[in-house]
Design goal:
Length: about 500
């Protein structure tokens, strides 16, 4: 009999993806616990406890010698291939326990074989569940030391163009990317056959499920109908094009405030630029490209930005159950990650979680309740970035060396006087946030948002007509006319003479 040693439960228990508990050894139903052995071996390893209830009661086992022998026997009989395990007997308060430590397997998939079935299990949160068809493909790749981005495609290097990759690589590294680089970076093999990574970086990538959907929604939630979205774009092509288009969409649909200080000014963007870029890069690089029929999404609301990518955490854990400061970097697509690292879009080491949270913590309007939020499921990953300027009043805005207090009715600049009232004033190319102005008007919230969206699209100098509103907002002619009349009554727009009938511009 193995020698029993003192048992301290706290030394073992941690993230529930990595351990499971059984009160007794079920000899007649070995699948009930061998599925956890299979799941641990197919994942990052784990620990199986015998003698502990689901409520963490330390009950112990009656005959640990026989139980330990039976565990070893059933693992050999019912597992294929046989995983590497270590079995130890522990004692606490006169009770005996068995702990089976399962190593992460190198020959995946590890199957449970019995009852006329052959099933590989994977770990999802605190459960061991049968692997689906796509999961089995991943396990086969893992067992063969391959990743999706390293698999050879049906395309050759000469079949596709890489002008975007060549130009971006030259711009960001100062070097040309050569044919030899394509091979050494893992984008093609010695015979110039492209890997999936190479295909994903081609100008007109034929991998059609590599797409990016971007929407700027009207309000705080998704709603039905095209009228409820201010901006909606769908992008395809090279991963670099998706990244750059996503950056541009975020820039065009978010705002930048600034505040004058003694020796310069403080920029106050809705979202820290580096944090948003890091989230977008991670979504494109680390997504699961075996999840067909899905794509990366950017959804921007008034108070937040949500970025979704197909595929959960690479090790099957749930990110919301982890301390994100301690999560090690694990790359589902290491070749793609490496080329993006070479172009300085991401670091080669370390977790992006800390960087994203750090960028928020150093932002001007940061509060603890605005910390980025990370969530995952077995097949999805979500990041929520909160708008740092949402519902934050513009206390004081500086122009030149003077400060304008918006609580005052009139403020003097030299010998001139500017009447603010409840409106905003543009100086040179700088303009005040229209949302603050509209909040003071006696109009519905949805009308205010649509006027704000129109102002963001046109600016204070653009001349527009009813037809322009119909085109931009996908509304009826009647609604466009009613909106024009409302804006005229509020003094927001004025008619423009000499440009034809029915022409207006914002009067801000």
């Amino acid at each position: 009999m193995r020698k029993a040693v003192e048992f301290k439960l706290d030394e073992f228990l941690g993230e529930t993806t990595l351990y499971d508990k059984k009160l007794t050894l079920e000899e007649r139903k070995p699948k009930s616990w061998l599925k956890s052995i299979s799941a641990f071996a197919n994942g990052d390893g784990g620990i199986l406890f015998f003698g502990i209830s689901d409520e963490d009661e330390l009950r112990g086992l009656q005959d640990v010698k026989r139980a330990s022998e039976k565990i070893s026997e059933l693992i050999k009989e019912r597992m294929d291939p046989i995983p590497k395990v270590s079995l130890k007997i522990y004692r606490r308060d006169g009770k005996d326990f068995i702990i089976v430590n399962v190593a992460a397997g190198m020959e995946t998939p590890y199957y449970y074989v019995g009852d006329g079935s052959r099933i590989a299990f994977i770990r999802i949160g605190n459960e061991s569940v049968p692997a689906g068809a796509v999961d089995l493909k991943r396990l086969v790749m893992k067992g063969s030391k391959a990743t999706f981005d390293s698999l050879l495609s049906q395309y050759r290097l000469e079949d596709l163009d890489f002008s975007k990759l060549r130009a971006t690589y030259r711009l960001r590294t100062g070097k040309k990317i050569t044919v030899d680089d394509f091979i050494s970076f893992g984008l093609a093999d010695d015979n110039h056959v492209l890997t999936n990574a190479g295909v994903l970086l081609a100008d007109e990538s034929p991998m059609r499920h590599s797409r990016l959907f971007c929407t700027r929604w009207l309000g705080l939630d998704k709603a039905s109908g095209l009228m409820e979205a201010w901006d909606d774009k769908e992008y395809s092509g090279s991963l670099l094009s998706l990244l750059q288009n996503g950056e541009e969409f975020i820039k065009n649909n978010t705002k930048m405030r600034w505040k004058k200080i003694a020796d310069g000014r403080i920029d106050m963007p809705d979202y820290p630029e580096r944090a948003a870029l890091e989230c977008l890069v991670n979504a494109l690089i680390h997504r699961d490209y075996m999840e067909l029929g899905s794509e990366v999404h950017i959804d921007i609301f008034d108070n937040r930005m949500e970025i979704y990518s197909p595929g959960g955490m690479f090790d099957g854990s749930l990110v919301q159950n982890l301390d994100t400061d301690l999560v090690a970097s694990k790359r589902r697509n290491p070749i793609i990650a490496d080329i993006f690292s070479r172009m300085k879009y991401m670091e080669r080491r370390g977790s992006g979680f800390k960087k994203i949270k750090g960028d928020y913590q150093y932002a001007y309007n940061y509060r603890q309740d605005l910390a980025p939020k990370f969530q995952s499921t077995a097949t999805s990953f979500f990041v929520t970035l909160y708008n740092l300027n949402y519902n934050v009043p513009a206390e004081k805005v500086a122009f030149g060396a003077e400060k304008v207090d918006f609580g005052q009715e009139k403020v003097a600049f030299g010998q001139e006087k500017v009447d603010f009232g409840s409106e905003k004033v543009a100086f040179g190319q700088e303009k005040i946030d229209i949302d603050l102005l509209l909040a003071e008007k006696s109009i519905s919230q949805i009308t205010a948002r649509r006027i704000s969206a129109l102002y963001d699209s046109l600016g204070y100098a653009e001349i527009f007509s009813r037809k322009d509103i119909i085109s931009l907002m996908s509304v009826s002619s009647t609604y466009a006319g009613r909106l024009i009349n409302q804006m005229k009554e509020l003094g927001l727009i004025v008619g423009v003479i000499g440009k034809g009938k029915g022409k207006y511009k914002f009067n801000l």
